[in-house]
Amino acid sequence: MSKRARFILVLLVVAIATVFLYPTGKWYFGVGKDAKAIATGSREQIRNFSQAKAAEDLEKLEAMVKENPNQAIPAEYSFLKDKAAANYKLMKKDAPSTWSVQQVLSSFKSKKQLFNAIEAYYRDDIMGLKEKSKSILQLGLDLSGGMTVLLEADMDSLGEKLGRTPTADDKKGAIDRAIEILNNRIDRFGITEPQIRRQGDTGITIEIPGAADPERVNAFLMGKGKLNFHIVDDEATQALRTYIDQNPGRALDADEQPVDKSILPAGVVCRRFVQKDNYGIDYTVNHIAIREEIGLDGSHIVDAQVGNDPVTGRPVINFALDKEGADIFFKLTSANVKKTLSIVLDDNVKAGATIQEAISGGQVRMSGLDKQEAQDIALVLRTAALPVSLEVINQQAVGASLGEDSIRQGVRAMGLGLLLVIIFMIIYYKGAGLIADLMLLLNLYLMVGILSAFNLTLTLTSIAGLILNIGMSVDANVVIFERIKEEYRIGKSAAAAVKAGFEKSFWAIMDSNITTFIVAVFMSQLGTGPIQGFAYTLAVGIVTSMFTAIFVSRLIFDFCLDVGHMKKLSISWEK
Fold it and tell me: What DSSP string describes 77-140?
């Protein structure tokens, strides 16, 4: 490969690492502490913040109109200009060249419309930050805190499934299987380095680092995703809605069932029909009366994949049923043609459709979900049902166990180690040592970029891995430099010594790094939590250090010799 091609490849790798590293750098250095706290909170907290800010801004704007209606709209409210211009266009009016407060406010039909526009601005801003926080290098539970969840297994539900009183071995096996499934779900949800361990005989403790979304965590930790198919009683639904309209606020009890039990016939229950609002929070659209008897149990679903509706383009989940489930579904749809089939997820109706004809083949489609919810539900269904029902006993945010002092000490240790290695390499290897130091810095930059790209979690053990890689990353350079010195001593030219040094040291470097890489791979597969973090960092460091030491440093030597016309090597104090 020519020097130009190698140079372009190095630039491309650095550019890719920069792209990967940019979200992390912007998050930690470009986003304020208050904005981070809001963006990493729950969706309810984001909604409350957006609505509170909108109400506050609305009061300020109304006060400005009373004080001086012709004053220019302040820069902090410039986002309203585009909305106002769009409103003027709808009213077939010419937009003014400079906007006053009065002109902006008068472009909105009502105070509610203005409030919604301001709320949407804050909502989109914070929700955008929330999305960005998912693609950065996260800090672990020991450095930044996170969430701890205590789950308790319901052994009564296990007894119902087994049809007998569960033995100690049954309970132990159920908890072990539940931990395995939770591990699988958490890994696929993209949360790295969770701590999952048994708590007593029937409890499970889970520690999730970083700013985990509580609603989304509950969606898979508690075994949610219990999905069943029920037939809707249309006449009872109409009677139920009439009753609710006639008794607003007093029609339903705490269990969402009619206070007047005569409203629904025997075997029919009330369920909420829910959809997601702009914040991704479920809200009740209406109430539906469904048959209490399960038409088809979701346990018959053997696969679930997310796709897009060919007409609307909205996300759908395509279910594949086992043979027994396909037979049950065919009989269910055959007996209820022209009736409504509801898809009930965790006792909430998520979608419904009229059965036009009997459905065979075991393929079912579910719509009415946003993309994230569809992916989450499909994932929970694919990772198998929990063998025992789990109940959240306690869920709380936890602070960093080590905190800023430990982070500061780790960064200080890494900086001190980096500085000492840089000084040693320059003193011992002179000009070649300077090249090694540049490779060391490039290696560290590429490592952090790759860790950011895979959204890995940085713990104290990961910082230890970074510090270790600082020392290890110059090992290959040391082997190469010593080989070059040997070739240089026997009278070879600078170019010949460099070529021979790199070629003869190549396999020695490869062998040592490959064996270490194999160890790192086994640690990442067999270890958990902090051990995995150390293994990931070590493996990434091995790859980047080999690239910088063998590929990039060779390019710099070739450039100095061929383009810089360097005749002598600055690699040793020996003459």
Answer: GTHHHHHHHHHHHHTT-PPPSS-BHHHHHHTSSSHHHHHHHHHHHHHHHHHHHHHHGGGS-EE-
